[in-house]
Protein: ABC transporter ATP-binding protein
Amino acid sequence: MQQAATIDIASLTKKYGDDAVAVDAISLKIKAGTYCCLLGPSGCGKTSTLRMIAGHETATSGDIRLGDVVVTDLPPAKRQTSMMFQSYALFPHLDLVDNVAFSLKMKSVPKAERRAKALDMLKLMHIDQYASRRPAQLSGGQQQRVALARALITSPQALLLDEPLSALDPFLKVKMRQELKRLQRELGVTFVHVTHSQEEAMALADLVVVMSNGRIEQAAEPREIFHRPATAFVARFMGDHNVLAGKVKELDAEGALIEAPNGASFRIPGADHLVVGETAEAAVRRDRIAIGESPTKGLGFTGHVRNVEYRGGSMKVTLDAPGVEDFTVYAEESAFDSAPHEVGQAVPLSWSLADVHVLKPTAH
Ligand SMILES: Nc1ncnc2c1ncn2[C@@H]1O[C@H](COP(=O)(O)OP(=O)(O)OP(=O)(O)O)[C@@H](O)[C@H]1O
Structure:
């Protein structure tokens, strides 16, 4: 059984050249035995962060600790981490046992011992029956299991995975996702997994780290990210909220009234950082909005239906209104069917104040 280590990242920065800041002074603690997903759109800095943890990229400034050891300037082989690459990077001319045993060979572990250990790892990944095959004789999912076995054979304290599921078809993706979770649970090792898929991060992670523009927007458990997105970026990126934005017009005991451009106004709950005259943002869950019920003042508006899509079990209704961009409602299928709405139709939308969540100002 591997020993897990806490990964402690302090003010870590990566610059490529003089002005391209890929990772901008991020700090993050990933406790030992955590399944952590680094999530964000292309170019947000997640791979650079992972590669700095692995030692495949140098840090421009800041520190990385693995357990009690500052590893920032150590070469990859000295870090007790192991990385699994997107391309699997298997040796085509070696059978599975030799592929998996390769790093032990580099460490001069005797042949019988390294082959026995490789076979154990293939058993752990449920592919020992193919031990004498070469990678080309395996499916994509099986090749990935070999790559995982190879990454785990050195008993790393942390396993680093760069988009490990992106090459698989959707069915296999879900199956391998369950395998990764099982493996992490059984081994108890710290996993850091880079993905651009919200669904993948929500399904796998104990800790989801949402990144944008080289910074961390929010690091929290999946349910916290879903129910309480910290910023407008997280609310929009996770895709289950609408963001309402405008200037604070009035503050009272119950909250605030914000005025969106073009005159629409909305009520939001109170928050310490709200100041009259300054910009405020709030999120409303897409599945908590009623279509067809006239709103209480400030808790809804009248929108024009722009598009209706079937999602299976619910409809995705996109609406436009002055001062409101890209407003989306997930309407339960039978409710929608009992009062269907056509494209172009004007419909009242409403929600309750309890379903409005105030967002923090975005960090940049
Ligand atoms: N070797 C490099 N030289 C110069 N710029 C780089 C290099 N590697 C990455 N970058 C830049 O740094 C930024 C962050 O890249 P990074 O690969 O870390 O992002 P990412 O979130 O992993 O993106 P993706 O999901 O597309 O892989 C991007 O703007 C990218 O263009």
Notes: The chain has nine helices and 20 strands.
